[in-house]
TrEMBL record:
Keywords: Coiled coil, Endosome, RNA-binding. Residues 139-205, 560-605, 689-723 form a coiled coil. One of its GO terms (molecular function) is RNA binding. It holds the Pfam family KLRAQ. The keyword Coiled coil applies. Signal peptide: none annotated. This is Protein phosphatase 1 regulatory subunit 21. GO terms for cellular component: early endosome; membrane. Residues 761-775 have a biased composition (Polar residues). Residues 86-107, 632-654, 761-784 are annotated as: Disordered. Residues 13-114 form the Protein phosphatase 1 regulatory subunit 21 N-terminal domain. It comes from Chelydra serpentina. SMART domains: KLRAQ (SM01254). Transmembrane segments: none annotated.
Length: 784
């Protein structure tokens, strides 16, 4: 609570510092804006004064131009008078040669003076015109700059207004936050007081518990020292024989994981079997079809090796099944007790050797396809890619075999693998499985391109197309299976590392597989002992009832001999009843036989009457002859009955055979119909599986695209955050630039003031020059 209060206090201090900074900046900006407004007002006043002085100068200019025009007219009049005087002077030339000479000299002097004054007046006019133009240009420039400065001032004023509004909002927000923080600090103080009170109570309880536990510890140590002669937990060798704590949940989780792994291995084995089988079919039909021509010895040997794939692939499933069956709820599953993992490792070793054996033939077969005349450049490139992929897949299986053989070592050799290396080995296995998945994706991509190119060949048969489709489907199944296994192993990597490395209490590990086996035997004995303790006791007779039965037994007059005689009599009666039972069973059998004979006699008499009818006029024999005839008839009837019995037996046997035959025929028909139904269902299921596989691939692609979009979104979020920070910094920079700009504007305004002052001084000097020119012209005219 104290830490939370300190954190809130620190946040509040930071906010207060920021608020004070913003307030100081706001005051500076207000001052700058006010100075700018004052400067703009002064500039407006100066501009008005300039306009007034310009009007005065314009009026003076107009008056000067009017005066110059008057002077020019007067000069013309004077020139006309001079011409008249010259004409008059010609008449009186002689008389006034002296005076004319004097006037001619004066005239030349006046002309020179007048010419000088005129030139000086022109020069002054030119200077005045240039000064006027420069003044106008400066005036327009100053007006433009004033407009720009006014717009800048308006913009700055808008920014200042926005900032003031923002600062007002932030001030209100900070005040609200301050009130909330004060309320929260009060609640935190109350909670802190309560926590202190509780801490004191807990401290008191802790002291009491400490004292109680110390007393119990002393008692238990006394009991252990007096009663326990040997402590086996001190020695790691003896402690390894102790039964660790049994985690039923952990065992069930491991069994579930093993079941999932078994399902994935079964799918992988099926895909590998299909892949090798369809590759064998492809070798038989491409590049040379074995039905029309003999294939090369290399491909024959390769096909022979591929035909043996089931003997190497099937044991992988069997080894995984044995491992799954060895993990039960009652066992302790660690690496030292998983002996069945060695069988799976041996089967994986044999399959890796098989891949190593067929790899050269596979590479040579691809090279032979490249050397074929039907192989194009693109197809040759795909074959080279598959050439590299086959090397990679063999290397991946060899890597997996090495790491799985390392995991098997703790159940074989005690010091084969250190416990600290378990996690790194499992991590390498996960990396190998991901590598297997990546290689299978590359093979799927390259083989699909190769199959598309082969389908475009003119010599491509339907058999080759279907075989390529089957190989592609098996490669897709392998890719999916590898991806599932890799993701499954990566997701359960932490569980493998944690659950497969625990041992007895007080110890760090099992010493050897032998000690682990002894521990399992002790565990079975302990379980049997606990079960025997948990068996319910047999129902006993209540004590009062037992006393009553004892009294009855003691008070009874029947002795042991009487009871023995009664038993003997009952046994004799049972024997007699057994004999009578056998007698009556024999009688029943005889009666059954007689009944059958009578039925046969009736049948024979009926058949005899139908075959040989008696004559109507017969002579009755005497009694002796009748007896003889009856005896003969009896013998003949017995013989006939014997024959009929044999015939009936033979006919019954034939009918029984016919019935059995019909039954089996019907059963065969039923089984064939069921087989056809199963085939149709399998075709349907195969189509559904292919559709599901396509959907799964599309889903994986969409997942990848979504992951990329998520990455882009996260990048955009980070970019926006960076932009936000940069905008904040740029905003601060702009504020500093604005202050600098205001300073520069002040400097420019001061310079403009100086320029205006200089212009004022120059314009004040110009009228003096004009007046001096007028002063020069007027005496000349007066002299004229």
């Amino acid at each position: 609570m104290a830490a939370a209060g300190a954190e809130l206090q620190g946040k509040y201090q930071k906010l207060a510092q920021e608020y004070s900074k913003l307030r100081a900046q706001n005051q500076v900006l207000k001052k700058g804006v006010m100075d700018e407004q004052a400067n703009s007002a002064s500039l407006k006043e100066q501009l008005k004064m300039k306009d007034q002085s310009l009007r005065k100068l314009q009026q003076e200019m107009d008056s000067l131009t009017f005066r110059n025009q008057q002077l020019a007219k007067r000069v013309e009049l004077l020139q006309d008078e001079l011409a008249l005087s010259e004409a008059k002077g010609k008449k009186n030339k002689r008389s006034g040669e002296s005076s004319s000479q004097l006037s001619q000299e004066q005239k030349s002097v006046f002309d020179e003076d007048l010419q000088k004054k005129i030139e000086e007046n022109e020069r002054l006019h030119i200077q005045f015109f240039e000064a006027d133009e420069q003044h106008k240009r400066l005036e327009t420039e100053l007006k433009n700059r004033l407009e720009v400065l006014e717009t800048d001032a308006a913009q700055h004023q808008a920014v200042v207004d926005g900032l003031t509004q923002k600062y007002i909002d932030t001030i209100e927000k900070l005040q609200n936050d301050k009130t909330k923080l004060e309320i929260k600090s009060q609640t935190l103080e109350r909670e802190a007081k309560e926590c202190r009170f509780r801490a004191e109570e807990c401290q008191q309880q802790l002291k009491n518990l400490h004292a109680d536990l110390g007393r119990r510890l002393d008692d238990s140590l006394c009991i252990i020292n007096e009663k326990v002669p040997f402590n086996d937990t001190r020695s790691s060798k003896y402690n390894a024989l102790n039964v660790p704590l049994h985690s039923r949940r952990c065992q069930l989780k491991l069994r579930d994981i093993a079941g999932q792994a078994l399902a994935f291995i079964q799918d992988l084995v099926t895909a590998l079997l299909n892949f090798h089988t369809y590759m064998e079919q492809r070798v038989q039909i491409f590049p040379i079809d074995s039905a029309t021509d003999t294939i090369s010895p290399l491909n024959q040997k390769f096909s022979q090796y591929l035909h043996e794939n089931a003997s190497y692939v099937r044991p992988l499933e069997e080894g995984m099944l044995h491992l799954f069956e060895s993990i039960t709820e009652d066992t302790v599953t660690v690496l030292e007790t998983t002996v069945k993992l060695k069988v799976f490792s041996e089967h994986l070793t044999s399959y890796t050797c098989f891949l190593r054996k067929i790899l050269p033939y596979q590479l040579k077969s691809l090279e032979e396809e490249c050397e074929s005349s039907l192989c194009t450049a693109a197809l040759r490139a795909r074959n080279l890619e598959l050439h590299n992929d086959m090397k990679k897949i063999t290397a991946v299986f060899e890597k997996l075999h090495v790491y799985i053989s390392l995991i098997v070592l703790p159940s074989i050799k005690p010091d084969g693998l250190l416990r600290t290396n378990y996690s790194s080995v499992f991590t390498h296995i996960a990396a190998g499985l991901h590598g297997f998945h990546n290689v299978m994706k590359e093979i799927s991509k390259h083989y699909s391109q190769k199959a598309a190119l082969e389908h475009e060949l003119p010599t491509a048969t339907q058999k080759l197309i279907t075989t390529n489709d089957c190989i592609l489907s098996s490669i897709v199944a392998l890719t999916n299976g590898a991806g599932k296994i890799a993701s499954f192993f990566s997701n359960n990597l932490d569980h493998f590392t944690a659950s497969l490395s625990y041992g007895p209490k007080g110890g760090t590990e099992f010493i050897s597989p032998l000690s682990a086996e002894c521990m399992l035997q002790y565990k079975k004995k302990a379980v049997a002992y606990m079960k025997s303790l948990k068996k319910p006791c047999s129902d006993s007779v209540p004590y009062e009832k037992a006393l009553a039965n004892r009294r009855v037994l003691l008070s009874s007059t029947e002795s042991r001999e009487g009871l023995a005689q009664q038993v003997q009599q009952s046994l004799e009666k049972m024997a007699k009843l057994e004999q009578e039972k056998e007698h009556w069973m024999l009688e029943a059998q005889l009666a059954k036989i007689k009944l059958e004979k009578e039925n046969q006699k009736l049948k024979s008499s009926l058949t005899g009457q139908l075959i040989e009818p008696m004559p109507e006029n017969s002579v009755l024999p005497n009694t002796a002859e009748q007896e003889k005839e009856e005896a003969i008839k009896k013998t003949s009837r017995e013989s006939w009955t014997h024959r009929t019995l044999t015939r009936d037996h033979s006919s019954d046997a034939k009918s029984r055979e016919d019935l059995i035959k019909n039954h089996y025929m019907a059963r065969i028909v039923e089984l064939t119909s069921l087989l056809q139904l199963a085939d149709s269902k399998s075709v349907h299921f195969h189509a559904e599986c292919r559709a599901l596989a396509k959907r799964l691939s599309l889903a994986e692609k969409s997942k990848e695209s979504l992951v990329e979009e998520m990455k882009l979104a996260s990048q955009s979020i980070s970019r926006l955050q960076d932009e936000l920070t940069t905008t904040k910094r740029s905003y601060e920079d702009q504020l500093s630039m604005m202050s600098d700009h205001l300073c520069s504007m002040n400097e420019t305004l001061s310079k403009q003031r100086e320029e205006i002052d200089t212009l004022k001084m120059s314009k004040q000097n110009q009228p003096q020059l004009n007046h001096s020119s007028q002063d020069f012209v007027k005496p000349g005219l007066k002299n004229l």
